[in-house]
Amino acid sequence: MQNITDMIAEGKGKRLYATENPDEAVVYYRDETFAFHGLKRGRIIGKGEINNLICEYMFTMLTEKGVPNHFIRRIDNRCSLVKRVEIIPVTVKVRNIVAGSLAKRIGYPDGTRLKNTVLEYCLKDPELEDPLVNLTHITAMSLATPEEIKRMEELSLRVNEIVSGCMAEINIELIDFKLEFGRYKGQILLADEVSPDTCRFWDARTHEPLDIDRFRHDLGDVEEAYREVLHRLTGNVLKNTEEE
Ligand code: UDP
Q: What pLDDT does residue 2 have?
């Protein structure tokens, strides 16, 4: 076990702890969840364990396919060891099909296929409710350099290709997702997570969501949907255990 020291950050679904090695950190995946900028809170029993395994699967696959990322290894049921990056305070949203905030913004119905992949940037600032920004805002605010933005864009599109392809094989459509990146020893690494907390996954046959939208919109069977994604990806049948 790594020697955990202080908590560095606490997010919607995770806590991040420092270790004695300044280049590494431990991610602890929680069952707790928030939606609508914290207005709705709840618990998805076993989510922490499931997301830890899904992220291990995703990051391992992305490493094999040449997408540099923060993942080092899974430590136990709820924790993974990662490289300690300096998070770039801009999130990237990648969209293949209209859903969520985009449906509201452009007035297209959910499920409309987009003619090309849409990339969006948001400020990582919960107090401002993570507003949409464009590339000139990002450079004007010195949040990232043009080279860093170019690299984030390139990696985001590559993640889209890899994860869309992998999900298609298990009859799941990748609708959209959110990514975060960090700086680490002069490199840009994919950080944060790739899981049903940050991606819209729809069953390819029924178009039912298998992700956090089940919690956001009270669709029921939330735990089952997370377990289903893990099972289709890895064959793993988890008996969810509640977080202490
Ligand atoms: N997303 C996320 N964290 C957020 C907001 C969005 O992971 O704080 C993900 C969301 O699950 C979806 C994608 O980003 O896969 C696009 O989200 P959208 O802008 O439609 O916002 P939402 O409708 O989720 O608020």
A: 66
Q: What is the Å distance from ligand 1's center to 156 Cα?
A: 15
What letter represents residue 55's amino acid? C
Q: Ligand 1 pocket, 70 CB below 6 A?
A: no
Q: Tokens 């618990």 map to which residue?
A: 43
> 200 CA to middle of ligand 1, Å?
8
Q: How many Å apart are CA 60 and CA 166, to the nearest integer?
A: 13
pTM for the complete prediction? 0.96
pLDDT, tens digit (0-9, with 9 covering 90-100), for 119-146? 999 999 999 999 999 999 999 999 999 9
Q: Which is the closest atom of ligand 1 to the Cα of 101?
A: 20
Token pair in block for residue 128: 């401002």
Q: State whether residue 163 is helix, strand or coil.
A: helix
Residue whose tokens read 């452009």 = 106
184 CA to middle of ligand 1, Å?
Answer: 25
Q: Determine the pLDDT at residue 5.
A: 81
Residue 212 Cβ contacting ligand 1 at under 6 Å: yes
Q: How many Å lie between the centroid of ligand 1 and the Cα of residue 21?
A: 32
Q: What is the pLDDT of residue 243?
A: 80
Answer yes or no: are the C-beta atoms of 125 and 211 closer than 8 Å. no
